[in-house]
Design goal:
This protein is 26% helix and 27% strand. It is an alpha+beta fold. The longest helix is centred in the middle third of the chain and has 25 residues, at 368-392.
Length: 870
């Protein structure tokens, strides 16, 4: 949330200038949710999708690919397995990527994890795979599997076992199998995968899952994926063109990279890496003596009749029945290709009826084989049902009047067909009505229509009123932990009848919000009736500004939103530290689905001491206090972020030269300019024109933000002006650049990062002052080891590896058990000015309110003042 552009100081009061107000539409946000993270059907069910759905009903193999992070997936391989071999493929990604960097916006931490979850969902839908996650955190780069496993504990293993028992894969592909170098989370993923396979088959492992109704599951085969030549392995034909989709599997896989926007990986889509051959090999010592020679197309994609071979006592009964079903599916495919959807649906219905009879026969048998075969045959029927849905293409709409659902209120729900399906069918809403959380109720509004059978399409089938109890809470069954998002809050079961066969599909209820420039679809969300969001969340105040005989005033803004359908009388207040005072705010009358801005005027006591002071805002309605924020993610407003609406004021032992004026070259994703403005530092953002033509000499310092040379091509073009600025007495601070982009930055003297850029991942790692006399450690703040306490996630990344003798390394940093690295903060005097490169993670530390990071960063940008004094 960004109400104000920057913090300025006027007399004794800190306040914000130039409001930026959001429209109501910008605050209507939600989560994209699909049950089990299944690939979502496109609004138009195309011929290719219909043919593929039929083909998938003829294959019984399930394959689970396990990896560590979003964008780790072997996308070309996944596309080949799912869209080439028509196997049922799932991807399990152990983390949500919340520890990485963000190339498109300010989100970090858990917010970045939400953004990357949605990005990976888009890529998985494109690749035709189901998506699962574990609860393992991405805590940033890790240098060892041991460190990762220690931090993760048993949580990812438990979730991996749950996924295996839920999805029941025949084959597990270990995405990082045999990897013992590089990212520790990659290594840990490779170590845990075979452990999870063993544990999933053991009923004594994670017995709580067995009590919930899951069964132990034995995986038949564990495979590794290799990019090197393996003559005995199964070579994946990535460059073959799919006859259904008209593109190679490699090309389709590379296309999925565009979904990972926050990772900045699209530039690698044409990398030679993706053109290298790829092999599947049997993972040694984990697959019961199977060899690479046993791998074949039929192993990876077992045809439907081959299912009978798994159950020797039932094979005589199963095989002819499955052959007959497979023949009908083949005929349905030919009719679909001939654009005879009605004929295709008829064949699919016949196949489903035969499977239905097979299920009845198995239900009358006892024993483990009959039970296991019954589960598999049920899966076959589900795949035929999905194919029927694609071929029929019933254009159903289930619309809620709004997406913000509040406890104690009700909302209307309408069900209709928006057109005539491709195949004439009879459909109706199931008599049970909408599927809703326990304790909720749904009433059919008969005056608006009824739920009787419809054919040839119909408008306004039926309307419901859904009542939400006053004590409603979000359901959270244990199985939701492995899903990308929770399942839809409300779904409507639709009964479809075609040629004597009945199937049921569930349509999630959504809300549609139209503006003058877009039409957005949102799932329903249970939200508090009142939310409030405060800005800024962290106020950084130099102790010199907080000292004196008079009380100092700080102003914060809050947006208070009424999500309900009735006018709300809201009292707004804040719990403040002892000795602080808050100006009274009149009671607000907020209309339904509206918001209002309020201003907190805080008075600090005279002589406030350095330290962190918590602030706890609240909005009170009657006797209920609301202390939760509910805001859209800046980079993806259709996702929201909710957290306690707490704030803090940090009084810092911090000296800042008077009237310090700096310029910032940012790619638009950098939080640091705003944090510097809070300190009273004047910050100008240099756009392309300003960087190319403005007089830079009046700036005390110019700062190039994270990945500035990579994401701002004009910075490369104007680099000579920046070097001239340094030569004539300016201070230039360049923050981290990724290793492949570093060559574009042209520092004043030679410097390289090395083949693998150094980084220090432990935020509490030891620090050694290599140049205690350096001005960077002494002006205007005396830096001590205390200033390196309380850092978050890491010390830094993309450190220099080698540099010219003109430079001076200031800090020595090291991770446990590794040699010290000295390229995290390097500086040089060039003619009259100062050039400094730093890989220290100021982009994390300053927003997190780390006092020592503020003191050090102010030193970096104050060196021109010191040179002027001297």
């Amino acid at each position: 949330m960004k109400f104000r552009d920057h913090l300025v100081m006027a007399g004794n009061a800190f306040h914000f200038a130039r409001p930026i107000l959001r429209t109501r539409a910008a605050l209507i946000v939600g989560l994209a949710a699909t049950a089990l993270g299944a690939p979502a059907r496109l609004p138009a069910q195309s011929l290719s999708e219909g043919v593929e759905a039929i083909d998938k009903a003829r294959v019984t193999t399930r394959i689970l690919f396990i990896t560590a992070h979003p964008d780790d997936e072997a996308s070309g391989l996944l596309v080949y397995l799912s869209r080439g071999l028509d196997a049922d493929v799932a991807l399990m990604t152990l983390t949500r990527g919340q520890g990485g960097q963000n190339a498109i916006g300010p989100e970090q931490g858990a917010q970045l994890g939400m953004l990357r979850t949605e990005e990976l969902l888009g890529a998985s839908r494109h690749n035709g795979v189901t998506q699962f996650f574990s609860r393992a955190p991405d805590f940033g780069f890790s240098k060892s599997a041991d460190q990762t496993l220690k931090i993760w504990g048993e949580v990812p293993l438990e979730d991996m076992v749950r996924v295996i028992r839920t999805f029941r894969p025949d084959i597990v592909i270990n995405g990082w199998g045999g990897v013992h170098w590089g990212h520790g989370q990659h290594q840990a993923s490779g170590i845990l995968t075979p452990q999870a396979v063993v544990a999933a088959a053991d009923p004594h492992k994670f017995p709580n899952q067995i009590q919930e109704g899951l069964s132990p599951w034995s995986v038949a085969l564990i495979l590794d994926s290799e990019r090197d030549e393996v003559p005995s392995g199964y070579r994946v034909p990535l460059n073959d063109v799919s006859p259904v989709w008209g593109k190679s599997y490699n090309e389709m896989g590379r296309e999925s990279l565009v979904y990972h926007r926050s990772q900045g990986v699209t530039m690698f889509a044409d990398s030679p890496f993706f053109r290298r051959p790829q092999y599947l090999i049997v993972e040694p010592k984990t697959s019961g003596g199977a060899t690479n020679a046993a791998l074949s197309r039929n192993v990876l994609a077992n045809p439907l009749p081959g299912l009978a071979h798994r159950y020797p006592s039932l094979e005589a009964a199963l095989r002819p029945a499955l052959q007959s079903v497979d023949q009908l599916l083949g005929e349905a495919r030919q009719l679909e290709l001939a654009l005879d959807r009605t004929g295709s649906a008829g064949k699919l219905a016949q196949a489903a009826l035969q499977v239905q009879e097979l299920q009845k026969g198995l239900a009358g048998r006892s024993g483990d084989e009959a039970s296991a075969a019954g589960w598999e045959i049920a899966e076959v029927r589900q795949r035929i049902d999905r194919a029927l849905e694609q071929v029929i293409a019933l254009p159903m709409r289930v619309r809620a009047e709004r997406n913000e659902v509040v406890a104690g209120e009700s909302f209307s729900l309408s069900v209709d067909a928006s057109g005539i399906p491709a195949v004439p069918v009879r459909w109706s809403v199931a008599q049970s009505g909408p599927v809703i959380p326990k304790g909720w109720s749904a009433t059919l509004d008969a005056a608006k229509g009824d739920a009787s059978d419809k054919s040839k399409g119909a408008d306004d089938c039926c309307k419901y009123t859904v009542n939400v109890p006053a004590d409603a809470t979000l359901p959270a069954p244990p199985g939701d932990a492995i899903l990308p998002w929770p399942p839809p809050l409300v779904q409507v079961p639709i009964q479809i009848s075609v040629d004597g066969y009945d199937l049921q599909t569930r349509q999630p209820a959504v809300a549609v919000v139209a503006t003058s420039t877009s039409v957005d679809t949102y799932p329903l969300e249970l939200v508090p009736v009142i939310s409030l969001s405060v800005e800024p969340r962290h106020v950084m105040l130099p102790a010199s500004a907080a000292s004196g005989s008079d009380a100092k005033h700080i102003e914060l803004l809050a947006r208070v939103r009424n999500h309900g359908t009735r006018v709300a009388a809201v009292s707004v207040g804040m719990d403040v530290p002892e000795g602080w005072s808050l100006a009274k705010i009149p009671t607000l009358e907020i209309p339904p689905s509206s918001d209002q801005l309020v201003r907190f005027d805080l008075a600090l006591p005279p002589q406030a001491k350095p330290g962190s002071y918590p602030l706890k805002p609240f909005a009170r309605v009657g006797d209920r206090d609301f202390r939760i924020s509910w805001e859209p993610l800046p980079s993806r407003p259709t996702l929201h972020w909710s957290e306690p609406a707490d704030a803090s004021v940090d009084v810092l032992d911090l000296h800042i030269p008077e009237n310090l004026h700096v310029a910032y070259v940012t790619a638009g994703t950098d939080p640091i300019p705003e944090t510097l403005r809070q300190l009273g530092i004047r910050v100008d953002l240099l756009d392309e024109v300003a960087l190319a033509f403005d007089d830079l000499s009046h700036y005390d310092a110019i700062i190039v933000g994270i990945r500035g040379y990579e994401l701002r091509p004009d910075a490369v073009r104007s680099n000579s002006r920046l070097m001239d600025y340094v030569e004539h007495g300016g201070t230039l601070v360049v923050q981290y650049e990724r290793d492949f982009a570093w060559q574009k930055s042209f520092p004043p003297f030679p410097a390289t990062m090395g083949q693998a850029a150094a980084r220090v991942t432990d935020p509490n790692s030891p620090v050694r002052f290599l140049a205690p006399e350096s001005p960077l450690l002494n002006y205007p703040n005396k830096i001590t080891l205390e200033d390196f306490k309380g850092w978050v996630q890491e010390r830094g990344l993309y450190f220099w590896g080698e540099w010219d003798p003109h430079y001076q390394a200031v800090l020595g940093l090291k991770d446990f058990g590794e040699p010290e690295v000295n390229g995290g903060l390097v500086t040089a005097v060039d003619a009259k000015g100062v050039y400094t490169y730093t890989g220290l993670s100021f982009f994390r530390e300053l927003p997190a309110g780390v006092p020592g990071a503020y003191r050090l960063f102010v030193n970096l940008i104050s060196q021109s003042r010191l040179h002027a004094k001297n």
